[in-house]
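Sequence in, structure out. First:
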Amino acid sequence: MKKRFLGLALVLTAFAANAQTAFAANAQPETDQVALNVKLHPIQTIVVNAANVDLEYKTKDDYANGVTVSQGDHLTVYSTGGFTVNVKSETPTLTSLLPAAAAKSISSSDILITSAAGTTNSLAGAAYETDVPLTTTGAQLIKSTTGGVNKNFNVTYSHKDNGDLDTFVNKYFKDGDNPTVYTTNVIYEIVAS
């Protein structure tokens, strides 16, 4: 009886092993899929690399011809894709904190802004504007169809003689040995394009 039971156990084991092998051979592999998305969001940053820009009138020629100051690598831009840089004045006029000069001002639009490729790490193919009047509504200064990482741009600030040699002559007021300072904030804005 033990032999029969052992024989039956061997036959059943062989049958079960054969059934599993046959099932595994006929089974189809299971598959599924997932969508992988890379989502690129626009990122634009702009850094102005100078705390102040001074147009200083120190000579007769400065008063007669105007003053120009160039700022190398003045703006640094990071942009994922094309962008536009706009420039504007915070106020319509430059004003002085000096009480004697309170009634005087300089029109912001008398100041002209010019952009150019940076001295270092410039961006190829960008379009640059010249002699953009500084206004409160703003204007395009730089446009690029491509982005870049930490790309630099030169900016020139100027005030040219507009045919009136006395434009600033009567806007100086004595305050010790100090110059009369007229100020506004220049705002640079970068937007995706």
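Second:
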Amino acid sequence: MGGIKKKRDANFELLRVIAMGMVIALHYLYQSDSLIVLKEPLSAVKITGSLLEAFSIVSVNVWVLISGFYLSRSGFRLNRILQLLLEVYFYTLMVSLVMQMVGIYAVKADDSIFRSVQYLFPISSEHYWFATAYMMLYVLSPVLNCGIRKLTKIQLQATIFGLLLFTCLVKSFVPVNFVTDDRGYGVRWFLTLYLIGGYLRKYEVKFLSGKKRSLLLYVFSCLLSFCLLLVFYEWNWRADRFNYYFEALTHYNFILTLLGALGLFSFMRGVKLNEKGLVARASIRLSPYLFGVYLLQQHLEIKDRWIYWLEGILGKRPEQVLPFLGTFVLAIFLVF
């Protein structure tokens, strides 16, 4: 979300753009009813949508890995927290004001107090869950950075493994909805990803050192997740079981989601871009506005409406695969 200062940064700014595109894709697929749902008949469009979801679900993890990779080597800046906070408040209040001015404000009399609290305290009320978790992560970053610098390699590995054990590994194999499992929608998972990003900056991981190997890890993890989704759907259809595993495959803290994110992150880390090229320059220009795209799209007044606005432009979701893919790409482009 800041400007890039080193040559390699263009690669990661492009990765941020890709990650935000994936976030928009996930929102579109969910809200346009384009995903496989248990006990509902399959269709070619829903199978295609779930395949796209499998390749996009790594987006949030990738974003936080980038943050850990860079912030672990930077000093704490209070103005950065203030900048994030002001950006959140700007979109929260600005959208609400505009909606009131045009007469389509969705607040009703019986929920006006609660909704007002969400607008006045967007971080505490989790108006935007990502902004809340990310803000808390940034506040804790000096402590995390100190640990990354001071701990030995073995100590840091043990810390990361311990966090992964409780936030990722157990839930990925044990079919129980643990009370502490937030599916990756919280600061605990973000802390884990941040430390992993810092570790990757400090130490070389041979398994992730090659572009080809990293890309294969990303593709394999996503394809395996998609195939397992189909398997668990079929088993659930026949025996009414495996509900947990079907849902867990799309959690941010599921093991395959993490592996896919590590693969894509490591692949882009090795990509070389010409800073004067069109792709690099476009990525650099777009990057500062990406967080704003999320804040605008996920505002409480917009997040359940934008899909209908898109349908007014693009029409209803097509029932054939090729037209659906065209609409899918156009929807992401228009939201950007």
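Remark: The chain has 15 helices and no strands.
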